[in-house]
Every structure is written in structure tokens, then in C-alpha cells.
Amino acid sequence: MVSLRVHRQGHLTATLLIVPGVDRLPTALLTDHYELTMVQAALAGGTAQRRSVFEVFTRRLPEGRRYGVVGGTGRLLDAIERFRFDDDALADLERRAVVDQATLAWLADYRFGGDVSGYGEGECFFPYSPVLVVEASFAEAVVLETLVLSVLNFDSAVASAASRMTSAAGDRPCIEMGSRRTHEWAAVAAARAAHIAGFASTSNLEAGRAYGIPTQGTSAHSFTLLHDHERDAFTAQVDSLGKATTLLVDTYDVETAVALAVEVAGPELGAVRLDSGDLLVQAQAVRTQLDALGASNTKIVVTSDLDEHAIAALAAAPVDAYGVGTALVTGSGAPTAGFVYKLVARAGAGGSLV
Description:
Number of helices: 14
Number of domains: 2
Shape: elongated
């Protein structure tokens, strides 16, 4: 395990743990063509080694939002550490004549030797906040542009949405369950970003392995439909997972399912899950029914395309936890943080920054 530290204005703001085995492929070709052609021209023109400062910031926040939340810094530092042009990458660039031989030789020796500083993960940002500052030679820094933006834009969009959701949820835990709504590796990054912003757990097992995020899950409607009777499905799940499990009660009739759930598991039933319908009305009815059946400690978990607005609307409902998927991994309407990577200073003829 590698511990990487992020500094902001010279002060330590976060220590990030990077677990070996996560996205271990080289990252050098996760970039845009024009970054390498800029390096080629700068090398030929004698400006590639000019000391340069790049900043990452957004010019505006999505409409209706007062802040964003930084996510992805730890993943980015790991990716920069692995930013290498290996033999396969160099052979591919040569075969496609992307750059000339002098540039290929420079890329073969590439190791980032500059300084990276910025906001810690979980910190708020606002328009023009310099969430990341990269100081290095122009050539060293410019080739990182696409990598920096792809990581920070996605992770910060998810973290920003997650923060709004956990704020709306208050003390009630939120569960990240958006893996099936995004790219398979983006799902892992999304789970990490959501956890940074306060989500208690994730359904994604790779995120649990890689980042130590608690994972949870029980069954889907297909498991109930597999059985001839709903009672059989509940019995099989309770026998296998124990009475503290969560039973999905809206495959058929909710009232009937809740009664069956308590009959099968007893008042020790851990939770029931509602995944459709009017969640506010159903949660109130289910709470009343559970209490009447003596299952006053059985919790109610709600899912079904929730976002921060739906969570806020359920604030008065007897809900104990929220499962959030699509809205979370798509930034709840803002799928990118809008970050740009801009040169803000570079060395002049005398060597000082201008």
C-alpha cells in the first residue's frame, strides 16, 4: 500500500491510501493526440523545458448548486505515478506516426518530476477555486492534461452529487448502487467518490476490495420470481443469510409481502426494501404494519431512481436508509464538474515565472 500526500499551499491537507491492484495498466495513452504534438513542437522549438504552472478550476457551478466537492485526487496521483510510455505504447505511436523519433525518445524516458498540490478530497470548491496545481516543465505538465481532467471531472461530479444526497438524507445512511448504470471501471471510481462524500456503503465488490468500502446487498426481484411462492423466496433468503437480512417486499403486493416477511423471519427481521410506487405513502403504511406486527426494530430501505430531491421529499417519511444508483453515477444532472486545465504562469527569458 502506497501513501501519497496532497498539499495545499504548502500545508498537508490529506493522506490518501492507494491500494495496489487498482487500474494497474499504464496510463500514458489515456490522453489526447494534440498533447503529444505540442510536446514535439516544443522540443523542436526549445521551449519544452520552460517551467510552467497549470491550474485546474471550473468557471461555473451547475445551475442551482452552491458548491462542488473534490473527488479523485488519490486516483489521479496513482495514475500520475504510473504514467509511463512503455514499449507497446511507443511502438503504437511510431506505427501510426503520431510523433517523430526525437519525441519518442523523450517519451521513453518520461517520469513526472514536478510538483502537484491541491485541495484534499472531500473539500468544497467554488468557481475559479484552484483545486489542483501542477508545476513542472511545459512538456512534463502538458501531457497530463487529459488524464487530470478525466479523473477529476468524473469523480468530483459524483462526489458533488453524493454530498447533496447525504446532506438531504441527514443521519440516514445512503448506499451507492449505481454500478449497472455506468462503465464498469467508472462504477468503481463512483463508489469511491460517493464514499468520500459520505455514502456509508456500496454494492460494488471491486470498490470494496480496492478501497475498503463496506459492501452490502441481498436480493433482487428475480430471486422472488424464481420461486413458486413469495414465502419460499423469503424462507430461502432468511435461511441462508439470517434474520437480519433485508427482504424485498414489492414484487407483488406490498402488504401481503410484509406480513409474510415478518411471519418467516419474526420480529428480528433486519429490514424490508421498497423499490417502486409512491415511496412516501408506502413507507408510512409499511411502518405502521411492521409496528403492529411487533417488528418495530425492522428498518425500511427505499430505492427506485432516487436523487437528492427525492431524498429530501422523504425526509418526513419513516425511512431508515436510501439506495441510490443512476442519479449518483451521472452526477445528478451534472455529469462533469466542468474543470479545465490552464497554463497560468510560465518562465520568461530570465527564468522567472510570468
